[in-house]
Write a structure and sequence with these properties.
The complex is a heterodimer of chains A (304) and B (286).
Chain A: H1 2-27, H2 33-38, H3 44-53, H4 60-72, H5 86-121, H6 126-140, H7 143-157, H8 173-199, H9 202-209, H10 214-252, H11 257-266, H12 270-298
Helix pairs in contact in A: 1-12, 5-6, 5-8, 5-10, 6-8, 7-8, 7-10, 8-10, 9-10, 10-11, 10-12, 11-12
Chain B: H1 7-38, H2 76-112, H3 114-129, H4 132-143, H5 147-157, H6 160-174, H7 177-184, H8 189-225, H9 237-244, H10 253-285
The chains are: A mainly alpha (304), B mainly alpha (286).
Chain lengths: 304, 286
């Protein structure tokens, strides 16, 4: 177990270092950053001034190790646009994105697991087919378009929910539904296939032979085994959802890190952009690590 | 297997899905190829006297502009079929680019194993931890909107599933009898990869290709919707939805037309992919 843990940690660390390097390279793609920061009306002197002020006149390798050294300590520099520490900015926006992610995951699990179980129990019936159709529809739904549709129907026509903004818990409902849509198909298919496999196994036959009730067989025996992959995929899906929340936060003007990233991208505020990429990637790495550990705890066979 | 009895009915169902998928993708593909030549209007021609004309099925609509016009008086149908071309081209080219990267990595890892495989697995892990939409937006934002850049960025970001599937299927094929036979017959590594391995994993890769194409089309639409994808005035469906967004509360159909088109295309491609996979599954089971 310790060996598994150490190995897994080492890989996670190495991946984190690679992403750190990539997010640095990402922002240097555009060529001369000083020119893009200074804007179209800047004179040659302005550009030189900015280049020196932001340390962009130093060799790339120096800039790289400087950024790594600071990033490891949680110092991502200062935003050009907001005139604030990037870490403070992200710290104030992250709770909103995390809330949105958890609301989305919560909705997705509440919808996907029961539907997946029903489909598995009635395998091959019209219920099963209808559930698979829901999965296909979810997969094909463009999230930003679904968001707009909900705004028109739930926000304007029925007036059940606020259309956009960050004020109250109600502001998280529509974005949460949209975000859930992206995770429901995968979670539902996995629950279904896990349950189908579990229900066909020997220990379920034994449980039936013992005369246990249907509910007890489903909940205590089948679901427990089918849940193992679902737990780990749920963690991974949460990571994907946080990464993908940029589109939804922009549609609903929900001021989380995704919205911050979008604002920063349109304003060429590259310290913020590279920091957000890094933070979201680190959260994903952390979540997959957690998923692997959970799996190892739930299923001793995986600890080898 | 327990599904043996249900299999015949299941197979018919899968064929139905597959047929529907072929029909949808074929129809939109034909519209993308021939549509722009057949519609009487120019997708770029503005006519400010004819702004936001409603589609023919609504009161006040006419067949002059069957799907209505946008906020600048451009014919929606003409823009829609031109947009189909953009979606299809981006989908296909992205799949080619990401397929080349992913299949190369996956086959190498699966075939050689050991250290090579460790490197490939590491590359996949790194790629998965990078938030795709965010990085794509950042790259386009920093380097400027362009059609080529969108394809390049998506191609560089969407190879993970190709690599995963190519790797696992190559591992299965590597140990089969006909590959051993080819070794014994003195075939080179390259010839075994090209003649034995690739043709035998091709069908699995085709399934991945459909799923990735659907994903690439959705992502392009999302990027264009946020203003960091295909540059205007090109009528990408995502861009059409973005431009129509300001009018959706008064005339919801303006976001319905391009949105439904996008949904139907992606739905059709996914049906196609699912149908292919089920056919493969049925083959494997036999």
């Amino acid at each position: 177990m310790t060996r598994f843990l150490l190995r897994r940690l080492a890989v996670a660390l190495l991946v984190a270092m690679t992403v750190l390097t990539l997010s640095f390279m990402l922002t240097r793609l555009s060529g001369d950053l000083a020119i893009s920061i200074a804007g179209p009306n800047a004179t040659q002197e302005d550009v030189e001034l900015i280049r020196r002020a932001y340390g962009l006149d130093r060799p790339l390798t120096v800039q790289y190790f400087d950024w790594i050294g600071r990033a490891v300590l949680g110092d991502f520099g200062t935003s050009y646009f907001f005139r604030e520490r990037v870490s403070t900015l992200i710290g104030s926006r992250l709770p909103i994105t995390l809330t949105l992610g958890l609301v989305g995951l919560g909705i997705a699990l509440v919808v996907a697991i029961p539907l997946g179980i029903i489909a598995a129990v009635r395998e091959g019936s019209w219920v099963d087919r209808a559930v698979m159709l829901v999965a296909l529809v979810g997969q094909a739904m463009p999230s930003f378009w679904l968001g707009l549709l909900l705004m028109v129907v739930l926000g304007l026509q029925l007036q059940w929910l606020p259309i956009s903004g960050t004020g109250s818990w109600e502001h998280f409902v529509m974005p949460g539904i949209v975000l859930a849509f992206s995770a429901i198909p995968a979670l539902m298919r996995l629950t279904r296939s896990g349950m189908v496999e579990a229900l066909a196994s020997d220990y379920i036959r034994t449980a039936r032979a013992k005369g246990l009730t249907r509910l007890s067989i489903l909940a205590k025996h089948a679901l427990r085994n089918a849940a193992i992959p679902v737990v780990s995929i749920a963690a991974v899906q949460l990571g994907f959802m946080l990464g993908g929340s940029i589109v939804i936060e922009t549609v609903f003007a929900l001021h989380g890190v995704g919205f911050l990233a979008w604002e920063s991208i349109s304003k060429n505020d590259f310290p913020v952009v590279q920091a957000v990429v890094l933070v979201l990637a680190l959260i994903y790495i952390g979540l997959t690590l957690l998923a692997d550990l959970l799996n190892a705890v739930l299923d001793p066979r995986l600890r080898a | 297997m327990s599904a043996t009895l249900a299999a015949p009915r299941g197979r018919v169902r899968h064929r139905l899905g597959l047929a529907l998928g072929v029909l949808i993708v074929g129809f939109i593909g034909l519209a993308a190829i021939f549509g722009p030549a057949l519609t009487p209007h120019d997708p770029f021609a503005q006519d400010l006297g004819q702004r936001l004309v409603v589609p023919f099925w609504m009161e006040g609509g006419s067949l002059e502009h069957p799907l209505g016009t946008d906020q600048l008086g451009r014919d929606y149908l003409a823009r829609l079929v031109y947009g189909a071309r953009i979606s299809m081209v981006i989908g296909v080219l992205t799949v080619i680019a990401s397929g080349l990267i992913g299949i190369t990595l996956g086959v190498l890892g699966g075939f050689f194993g050991g250290r090579v495989d460790d490197v490939v697995l590491f590359a996949i892990t790194c790629r998965l931890s990078i938030p795709v939409v965010l990085v794509a937006l950042a790259v386009v934002g920093l380097m400027g909107n362009s059609f080529t850049l969108v394809i390049l960025v998506l191609g560089l970001l969407l190879w993970d599933r190709f690599a995963v599937v190519a790797r696992s299927t190559t591992m299965q094929v590597r140990n089969l009898d006909y590959v051993s036979a080819a070794w014994c017959a003195g075939s080179s590594r390259v010839s075994i990869l090209a003649r034995e391995v690739l043709p035998n994993i091709a069908t699995h890769l085709a399934v991945v290709a459909t799923l990735e194409m659907a994903l690439a089309i959705l992502l392009e639409a999302a990027l264009s919707f946020l203003g960091l994808g295909v540059p205007p005035p090109l009528p990408s469906w995502g861009l059409m939805i973005a431009e129509a967004k300001d009018y959706m509360y008064f005339s919801p159909w303006v976001i319905m037309v391009p949105g439904v088109a996008l949904f139907v295309l992606v739905f059709g491609i996914n049906l196609l992919g699912d149908g292919l996979r089920d056919m493969l599954g049925a083959q494997d089971a036999r």
